[in-house]
Write a structure and sequence with these properties.
The chain has helices spanning 22-37, 46-52, 58-69, 79-99, 109-118, 131-142, 167-176, 190-198, 231-242, and strands at residues 10-13, 122-127, 152-155, 183-187, 202-205, 221-222. The protein is α/β, with parallel strands linked by helices. The structure holds xylulose-1,5-bisphosphate and magnesium ion.
């Protein structure tokens, strides 16, 4: 083995768009339900939501929408509390949707997680969504032990700067106690890829409906799905990514 070859020790997964089509099946409907419940006339249709996804983080996305489309709402003295309350309600709607089984995992995800565990790879999550959304998605799909499969879960506001900042990946790497060269990241979006590459991680991208067509330059591989992907492929890609050019 050459001094430059890297040994794969951990897989770090983005959640939204990567493990499931959560923006389509969960987040957008949950935002709209929260707006309706609050008596607001806001409705994010698919096209608008596609634009708003440029901003990661639900609270940040609401604030971005207000700045662009409802600037008068930001003048309310309780504006910050209103955004927090809307986001809390949105999370409640999202977790209810997920618990009902309405957000299936993408093809190949459950199998790859299983095979990774059998192969002795460590698993982690790096996401901008809230920790409760992660378990709400994974427990119905993978069973009650789902969360215990992941050694580190980096989620939500544990870092102040969300993707495309690399902070959440750096936070996860530090807790894993591993260098980026021993890990592979899995992402679905340009923002996510910028975050993982910024942390020095070789990254496999599986675009979802909302992110197809984005710029994935720098990715180790861009695939339709994780279906058919085997652990030896991942080991080979990591070695290739670490090899001198
Ligand atoms: C996911 C996001 C999140 C979700 C909403 O990005 O951008 O904001 O849309 O989650 P990534 P919250 O997949 O790159 O992590 O409302 O819970 O913040
Ligand atoms: Mg994503």
């Amino acid at each position: 083995m050459s001094a430059n070859s890297a040994v794969l020790q951990a897989l770090i997964f983005d959640v939204d768009g990567t493990l499931a089509d959560t923006e389509r099946d969960g987040h957008r409907p949950a935002f709209n339900a929260a707006f309706r419940e609050a008596g607001l006339d806001w409705h994010w249709d698919e096209a608008l939501y596609g634009e708003l996804l440029a901003v990661t983080g639900g609270k940040e996305r609401i604030a971005h929408f207000v700045a662009r489309h409802r600037p008068e709402f930001a003048q309310r003295p309780d504006y910050t509390e209103q955004v927090a309350a809307l986001h809390k309600a949105k999370t409640r709607h999202y977790t209810q949707l997920a618990a009902s089984g309405a957000i299936p995992l993408r093809p190949g995800v459950a199998r790859l997680l299983r095979e990774a565990r059998v192969a002795g790879l460590r698993l982690a999550v790096a996401t901008t969504t809230t920790p409760e959304n992660v378990s709400a998605l994974l427990v119905p799909a993978l069973g009650p032990e789902a969360m215990a499969r992941f050694e580190v879960i980096g989620a939500g506001d544990v870092v102040p700067a969300k993707k495309p900042a690399p902070d959440i990946y750096l936070w996860v790497l530090e807790r894993l106690g591993l260098p980026a060269t021993a890990c592979l990241a899995f992402e679905d979006s340009e923002n996510g890829l910028r975050a993982s590459l910024g942390a020095g991680l070789a990254t496999v991208v599986t675009p979802c409906d909302y992110t197809r067509g984005q710029d994935f330059s720098g990715a180790t591989a861009v695939l339709d799905s994780l279906e058919g992907l085997a652990i030896p492929d991942l080991r080979a890609w990591l070695s290739a990514a670490a090899a001198p050019v």
